[in-house]
Description:
mainly beta, globular
Amino acid sequence: QVQLVESGGGLVQPGGSLRLSCAASGFTFEYYAMGWFRQAPGKEREFVAEVRWSSTTSYADSMKGRSTISRDNTKNTVHLQMNTLKPEDTGIYYCYADPSGHGSAVGGRSWGQGTQVTVSS
């Protein structure tokens, strides 16, 4: 059974940084694509970043140059380092696991419970 547990969210001032982590279990982590979506109040969930089984990464345009996603296959963990945070980055950040490995999500995604990120002065 896939389990994803996010951590690292919190309150940060504009311009600050946060590092989100997602601990995974219940599947063969190294073969999955892993990533993050976020959902702001009153808005739809949107893509943030992904790292595929090959370690190829992709980012939402809004996060390019400000964030880095990485994976540690020895610890079954994926990290999202976010810098120069803006109030519009506020939302619940959800980790996901995609069994396709290459980001197509043809088999659907499994989701964590989310971690709150609030960017405010």
